[in-house]
Design a protein that fits this description.
8 strands; alpha/beta; elongated; six-stranded mixed β-sheet; single chain; 28% strand
Length: 233
Amino acid sequence: MISDPKTSRVSTPRKRAWRGAGVITLALLVSLHAAWTGKEKRVKVTVNKPNVETRLFDPSGPRPPGMPALKGHERAACTAAFDDGAGVRCVFQKTGFEPAKLAAQFSDVEVETNLRIVIWLPQAYTPREKDHEEAHARISQRVYSELAEKTAREVGAKYLGRKTRRFLMYEDFQKLAKEATGQAAAEITQEWFKVVAGEAGRVNGRFDELTAHGQKDVPLDKAIEQAFDKDRT
């Protein structure tokens, strides 16, 4: 079983979860620079290496913090936390007298991604349970490897050079800067999450269908490939 929540985090963490695929969290980082570099517009992406760990728990004791609730005959779980921090830079141009017309143009987009996976196994786990949850982890890592950077560049590129205009008093410029860059960064993280976490959830869901949540005796490598193929057909 893999737990795959939809989560969006913009400044303050907020979580919503659904079963069938990982714990997804988004972290938003906003940076403001009031200087145009003159360099070629581009999206800077840093894809950090996934972190995978296994934790054992006592089924007869309280549920450990961070572990999803188990249902029915489930005895193990896998959570995947996809973190996407987007920073947007912009430059402003003021025209006329007060109240001035303020033009804000996004000049740079920077995105940093992370993936943290936790495999939850009962202390007396079976080899089948371990193999099944590790397969979920492999799926999430593969999706992250294939889509994290590609999606960040595609989404971020939509904002390069985009302008937002508003009539404001001079003392409101910094407020507009935070609003403009914050909104853009939030939109980037949300769209990135929708693509990457959505794909991970769909493929992991297909995998559970093919394996009956680990109850069917089927080759896991074959089931993983079928889950990817079925999801993309």
